[in-house]
């Protein structure tokens, strides 16, 4: 049963990884990013102290991603918590988020975001070349015309987050 469940959970990643060009032709990138962000949650374990209250996803710099996450996932519980999606306009508004999605347009604020969440169990997801190596947990990247994602294991360890081997196996590990 566990193997079947794992296979079913992997299907969205396989579809995106194998058919990205087709999906990109059919769907806007903010929809693809939103779907992946929500699915990443299933493969990451937060520490016990993060498992109370709402599961907060902060979106900084991309109204399309915010709208998609809020519309499709805002009312769904995950890991025993209600999902709360917030759209932030400054780093100062980011408080107690489980996930921060930092859009390319706000990547100039990357160092400030990383400093804000240092030592906290927060997964930072970015969309700009080089930010994975700089300390983002996950960074979207286009390789050979296909959407991929980089995974920085050291950043997960630093933020006290455990990432599953299934997610690691699908990523470009840096």
From TrEMBL:
> What is the name of this protein?
YfiR family protein
**The organism sits in which domain of life?**
Bacteria
Q: Which Pfam families match?
A: DUF4154
What is the species of this protein?
Marivirga atlantica
Q: Which InterPro entries match?
A: YfiR/HmsC-like (IPR025293)
